[in-house]
Amino acid sequence: MKDYAYAENRIIIGGKPGLIESKSRVTLETQKNEAIGILNNKFKGIAYTDNIPQNYSINYEVNPNFNQEEQEYISKIDFIPICVDPDWMPYEKVDEKGNYLGLVADYMKIISDSIGKEFRVVKTSSWDESLSFARQRACDILPGAVPTPLRKEFLNFSEPYIFLPLVVATNLEEIFILDFERVAGKSFALIKGYAAIELLRKKYPEMIIKEVPDARTGLEMVRKKKVYGYIDTLPTISYQLKTNRMPNLKISGELDLDYDVSIAVRNDRPLLFSIINKAIATISSEERQKIFYNWISVSYDKGFDYVFFWEVVGVSLVILSLLFYRNLMISRYNKKLIEANKKLDFLYKTDKLTGLFNRHIIDEETEKEVLRANRYNLGFSVVLLDVDHFKQINDTYGHHVGDSVLVEIAFILKNNLRKTDVVGRWGGEEFIVICPETQLTNAAHLAEKLRSQIECHQFSGVEKTITASFGVSAYRVDDTVESLIKRVDSALYFSKRNNRNCVTVRD
Question: Where are its TM segments located (predicted)?
Fold first, then answer.
């Protein structure tokens, strides 16, 4: 994938022809509309105002859209304390003079006018401290916050009003990230207290996250190769790359993760929450667009040297023709390569005979479940089964019939499990099932169901009844993969010693 270097400050977005840079605001400079589309799809609407001071002066009457109870609430308060991110441009910041600036600040100005009360910024040194102040009820509102389960314990969140693309910045030599799953196990820097940390840890438990105080520190860690990448919003990273002069870094990919900004209100202020939601609803699409273009402005390079163009047009056509032919050949090669990689990926993950996951993948999935269980206190269970007297089947009917029996058992397992369960061939005639978020009793019932299905099944080419023995156990606190599998294997061994065709449970 080609990397594109752009104009004055050489902010590079790997694999995408567009640029987000900054003057005192963020500027998008491109010859095409792709990058503009990325942002326009995220920022559904937005408004223009001048820079906004920390304390707003209000001369408007209370908005008539508020009911009597809400108007009475507004009339009883002098101002509304808010906690902000002191350094999150172009969205919000508090400058050296105490002025509250940014895209979010412009929204709060309009809402302040609508309510008829001023917002006063409570001084904090970081976003993490702002979150702490909000939890302690030192402020009533966080103007630019992303909802997470932990934050919802003490905050109510309005409808989203800003839709942000979340991206990763890396060093120039890194390739463009088409599939984030492939790099999720690497180390990434994120600002301490950001919602993305909680969301990413849930989605990618194997990710190594280094918390940093600000964006510049995170990008410096990337530059010094202390972490693989820095994750933040697209305009924020572009703003930092320009203002801090970091030409050796680039934006290498976008995360498939919703990161939509709302206004958070302390959850013991239901009337204030209702007032804020109504105020947001009154902001027109024109005002939203003006805010957007005030802080995320778009410019095009319209200059064109026709004399120079006609001097080089002949050579350009030849070069373009060669490039077109070369790209056509590369495209055909890439299609073949993609198909080959799909086949390799299938062979890497699956057992050739049964089509189930192989032991290597089962080991990885079990390790992930142990990590999830330790981090989120979520239990899971494991079922291990072994086909009874399988050697006799091979000796009596031949290995081709034995293989057919294993394929049919794999079919029975796949058709009696949930989509969330992971099933694989453990080795020889042994199979294993990982059951996420499943209690031991439920796993035991599942094992008994599978045992009965196998016993009742008429296997092709075999006249006798085929059965299987089962061992079941559940994750314990501080279990390792080895200790859990050893306990399940012990339960299976007990079943095989006791007449087989049964289920043994070890808690």
Answer: 306-325
Over the chain (507 residues), the average pLDDT of each successive run of 10 is 30 39 36 42 40 38 74 92 90 89 92 92 92 94 90 91 84 85 90 87 91 92 93 84 82 80 93 92 88 65 46 67 74 74 74 91 92 89 96 92 95 93 93 95 96 94 93 92 94 92 93
What pTM was estimated for this model as a whole?
A: 0.46
Tracing tokens 């501080």 back to the chain, one arrives at: 478
Which CATH superfamily, name and number, covers 68-162+261-299? Answer: Periplasmic binding protein-like II (3.40.190.10)
State both tokens at 90.
């172009």
Q: 250 pairs with which residues across the strands?
A: 12, 170
Pairing relationship of beta strands 468-474 and 503-506 according to DSSP bridges: parallel
Q: 206 and 372 in contact (C-beta within 8 Å)?
A: no
The answer for residues whose C-beta is within 8 angstroms of residue 184's C-beta and 6 or more apart is: 204, 206, 207
Of 199, 206, 208, 144, which is closest to residue 181 (Cα–Cα)?
A: 206
CA 408 to chain centre: 38
The domains of the chain are located at 3-42+165-258, 68-162+261-299, 316-349, 359-506
For domain 3-42+165-258, the CATH superfamily is Periplasmic binding protein-like II (3.40.190.10)
CA dist 131 and 136 (Å) reads 9
What is d(CA 491, CA 473) in angstroms, rounded to the nearest whole number? Answer: 8
Q: Is the fold of 3-42+165-258 the same as that of 359-506? A: no
Q: Residues 433, 417: contact at Cβ < 8 Å?
A: yes
Please provide the size of the chain in residues.
Answer: 507
- Residue owning tokens 């009003």: 161
Q: Which CATH number fits domain 359-506: 3.10.180.10, 3.40.50.11540, 3.30.420.10, 3.30.70.270?
A: 3.30.70.270
